[in-house]
Amino acid sequence: MEQLPEGMSVKSAAPVDLEVSNLEAWYGESHVLHGMNLTVRKGELVTLMGRNGAGKSTTLNCINGLVRKRKGSIRFRDKDVLRATPEKIARLGLATCPEDRAIFASLTVAENLHLPPLLNDRGMSDEEIFDLFPNLRERLGTASGARLSGGEQQMLAIGRILRSGADFLLLDEPTEGLAPIIIDQIAATLKLLRARGYTVLLVEQNFRFAQSVADRHYMVDEGRIVDEFSNDLSDQTKNKIQQYLSL
Amino acid sequence: MEHLSIQLISGQLLIGIINGSFYALLALGLAIIFGMLDIVNFMQGALYMLGAFLAYIISQYLGIGYWGALIVCPILVGLFGIVLERVFFRAIYDLDPVYGLLLTFGLAIIVEGVFRIMFGSAGIPYAIPDSLRGGINLGFVLVPYYRGWVVLVSLVVCLGTWLAIEKTPIGARLRAATENPGAVRTFGINVPLMVTCTYGFGVGLAGLAGVMAAPIYSVSPQMGTSILIVTFAVVVIGGLGSIAGAIVAGYGLGIIEGLTKVFFPEASSTVVFVAMAVILLLRPKGLFGRMA
Amino acid sequence: MTTIVSHTTEARTKKRPVNLGLLAFLAMVILLAAAPFLVYPLLVIQILCFALFACAFNLLMGFTGLLSFGHAMFYGWSAYIAGHVAIKYGFTPELALLTGAGSSALLGLVVGGLAIRRQGIYLAMITLAFAQMMFFLAVQFHGLTGGEDGLQGIPRHKVFGVIDINSTDRVYWFAFAVFLIAFLAIWRIIRSPFGETLKAIRENEARAISLGCDTVRYKLVAFVLSAGFSGLAGSLKAISLQLATLTDVGWQISGEVVLMTLVGGIGTVFGPVVGAVVVVGLEQMLLGFDDWIPVIYGSVFVACVMFFRKGILGQIQRAFQEN
Fold first, then answer.
1. Is residue C52 part of a domain?
2. Residue B249 falls inside a structural domain
3. How many separate domains does chain B show?
4. ipTM here
5. What distance in Å separates residue B183's CA from the closest CA in chain A?
6. Cβ within 8 Å, pair A65-B172
């Protein structure tokens, strides 16, 4: 493990928001996670990287309660949530932005945005969200969420979970298939969230993007964590990462 | 050719609108339940019958009249439906939706059979409430107050339900949960509870229809089955997933049935099915359907 | 039409079921041949007709994966047609059977053509609705069907003009022969490349389509075959038992054939026969308690759907496969 530079030590003293130990999970008959171990402290932005099928999305879906067949331990903010329902876990302050974005076609854009209930009064207002994603303001009147472009849907998906007041975010490949200009907007948003003290667990294949926003990276392979790096990366580490991702 | 007077036509049209009111209420319940649970609730007819019988029973044994029945019976039927859902439907959610149809079919036969054992097959009369007796003579047609009341209530309930689902935030949650229940749960919304309540409402609609039907059609164990099969045709015509389709097709088919009775009486019992065949040919998804 | 061979476990265990199947077939033949000496022959004929009906239904539900809730229209209307031509035109039994089965196949083509493109539940509702329409038509066209009274005293003319079947014993052998021929035909269809394609469609239609199969055509053919054989069962009933009534076109019969197939084992070859025996037997046990029949039937339905989806033979088959 690399030495953490001076500025990072504050976060290593922060309380642990999420602790996953020996997590195993199954999708139907298929044994997808073989013992995940990871920790996320309050205020960190941590990424899960790895090839397709490594188990990154499954890990997120175990944390938020959607995957039911699992063993091991998941502690969120000091509570054991292994057996908790997704809605209970959400109310502890967890929000998910799934890989398929889950924009509802039978809802208007406005209804999509306002769907998640407010968990507390610390959520962002509509105005603040439109400042982050100006396109959404224009498209607010659209009759169906399905009519938005991929980038707009991603912005909507992120925007709506910022309204609720949840401060631990699970983001699954937010930049996938998006134009660079929108990726930049998302990067700016994540940096803003970090500054405000949000905790983020991010699944990303785009390593450059991950590097621009994260504190730490986990490498996932075949349902396990196989390596961990801080964001201060030597060339040697970068090569290692490329190897993991390309095999 | 019979003498086609305006009285004859308006009279049958009125009957058609009344029948259509019941078709719409039952089809609405079916559409809501199918949208939420992916189950075609074959019990809808039996629950309609249950609503009518409960109205009769609480009138006979508890002295509760029509107005009380109008509130109590839909709630009782809704609760009964929820209990059945918890006990039986949980087992089959992950299976092919066809099993849902078979399960509810079996339950429907049981309920109908039990009531036949308890009450026999003859129709039991249920009186029109005193305050709604009589009617208003519009010159070309006599509109009994009770029938007018039935049409009014069903219009209000249907439109109200449609508005609630399509235009309110709670309706938005329902629509979203129909599309992707997992994602909705991750926002902190208790989807299982919402599903149960919605199912209870859909079932309660059948109970409400039953109470209102009791004074018109009298109360018998088999009253559910015949209307249910027509309701299926209505739902196919309107489009299985569509709330608006159920309502429009329900009233529409009631009216078409009524008019057919005037102009082509032999076809009146089959016209609904012919209409279904035509829709299947021309617009297979149904009038408002979104699903294949 | 391209054919697709299914790579399911059924293909791998094909060797065993052939011998097991032969044994089962012989057992069935022996039992059915002995039955009229032990049980009232007309009752066994009723079982034969229902068994054939259930086998035809199983072709559609068990092997193609399509639930029709209106098969009574094929069974019942064919009974009317066969009865009508026997009475009015003196058709000999084999001609009456062919006419009845043919008319049902035609009806199956029309209904199937309209309904087949829809997904499973829709199909069930559409067939139920069409069957109800056919019921109302049966009431209306009482010149053809006898209305509320039905067709009674349908004559049993000589088969091929020479074979006399006008006694209970003789008509039993006639019904038995027809049943066996039809059963073997259905079995042959199931085991043919066509049947394998149907099974592939049942298991994963999307995959079958992606492999180039015109699934709509296959499903329609299965529907027509199922309708035709159901019609054969209905016609057989009309000629053997000399009766065709409104009950035969009612929705209860549609439900009963589903029940027989479910109890016996969906997707097994002999399951429908076992199911027919069980259901008719149940009905016999409940004689005098007519009111309880719907409650018992419904309960068996619910119990099967919740706990016993494979049916009797399905469970046995699974037990064999696990050894």
1. yes
2. yes
3. 1
4. 0.89
5. 7
6. no
Q: How far apart are CA A237 and CA A49, in angstroms?
A: 14
Q: Does some domain include residue C279? A: no
Closest Cβ–Cβ partner in B88, B97, B230 for C306: B88
* CATH superfamily placement of domain A14-246: P-loop containing nucleotide triphosphate hydrolases (3.40.50.300)
Structural domain includes residue B292: no
Considering only CB atoms, C118 lies closest to which of B116, B117, B292, namely B292
Domain hosting residue C80, numbered range: 9-250
* Residues from B in contact with A at Cβ < 8 Å: 169, 172-173, 175-176, 178-180, 182-192
The total number of structural domains that make up chain C = 1
Instruction: Return the HEC string of chain C.
Output: CCCCCCCCHHHHCCHHHHHHHHHHHHHHHHHHHHHHHHCCHHHHHHHHHHHHHHHHHHHHHHHHCCCCCCCHHHHHHHHHHHHHHHHHHCCCHHHHHHHHHHHHHHHHHHHHHHHCCCCHHHHHHHHHHHHHHHHHHHHHCHHHHCCCCCEECCCCCCECCCECCCCHHHHHHHHHHHHHHHHHHHHHHHHCHHHHHHHHHHHCHHHHHHCCCCHHHHHHHHHHHHHHHHHHHHHHHHHHHCEECHHHHCHHHHHHHHHHHHHHCCCCCCHHHHHHHHHHHHHHHCCCCCCHHHHHHHHHHHHHHHHCCCHHHHHHHHHHHHC
User: Does C289 fall in a domain?
Assistant: no
At A216, is the secondary structure helix, strand, or coil? strand
How many Å apart are CA A157 and CA A139, to the nearest integer?
14
Interchain contact, C298 vs B270, CB within 8 Å = no
The subunits that touch chain A, with at least 3 C-beta pairs less than 8 Å apart, are: B
The per-residue pLDDT for range A84-125, each reduced to its tens digit, is 999 999 999 999 999 999 999 989 999 999 999 999 888 999
Within-domain flag for B220: yes
Residue C270 lies in a domain: no
Smallest CA–CA separation between B28 and chain C, in Å? 16
Structure confidence at residue B170 (pLDDT):
94
Rg of chain B taking only CA atoms, in angstroms = 19
CATH number at residue B148: 1.10.3470
CA distances from C276 to B103, B113, C279 (A): 20, 22, 5
Residue B291 placed within a domain: no
Which pLDDT score is estimated for B292? 36
- The pLDDT of residue C289 is 85
Q: What is the pLDDT of residue B288?
A: 83
CB-based contacts of C12, cutoff 8 Å, min separation 6: none
